[in-house]
Amino acid sequence: MSCKHLNVKVTGKVQGVWFRKYTQDKALSLHLKGFVRNEPDGSVYVEVESSDETALNEFVQWLYQGSPMSKVEKVHILDETSCRGFDDFVIRR
């Protein structure tokens, strides 16, 4: 099975609400690789990859929900590219 890489932008109340930590926990629980970071415009940017399309779909669906205190307005899948071979899923500052 080939690897799939997604670049995702999440908007809404997603900073200062533990969104990145919960995103990391969810990604790790699904054995996904990549990173999550806050953006200057108040959004959160995620790059995630896996050869397990079911896990990727579950992760994207989870992004619509987010952390308990977040209020997600939109989840934009910006593009799909070939995998970069991330080793883990990390929070980037």
Q: Care to describe what's here?
A:
The chain is α+β, with helices and mostly antiparallel strands and 93 residues long. It has a single domain, classed as Alpha-Beta Plaits (2-Layer Sandwich), CATH 3.30.70. It is built from two helices and five strands. Strands 4-1-3-2-5 form a five-stranded mixed sheet, covered by helices on one side. Strand 2 (33-38) and strand 3 form a beta hairpin. The longest helix is centred in the middle third of the chain and has 13 residues, at 53-65. It is globular and about 35 Å long. The mean pLDDT is 96.
CATH architectural category: 2-Layer Sandwich
Low-confidence stretches: none
The coarse silhouette is: globular
Report the top-level CATH class. Answer: Alpha Beta
Number of helices, where a helix is a run of at least 4 consecutive DSSP H or I residues: 2
The end-to-end distance, rounded to whole angstroms, is: 32 Å
Helix and strand sequence:
EHEEHEE
Instruction: Tell me the major beta sheet.
Output: 5 strands, mixed
Q: Any chance you could write out the topology, listing elements then pairs?
A:
Blueprint (H helix, E strand, L loop, with lengths): L3 E10 L5 H11 L3 E6 L5 E7 L2 H13 L5 E11 L7 E4 L1
Parallel strand pairs: 2-5
Antiparallel strand pairs: 1-3, 1-4, 2-3
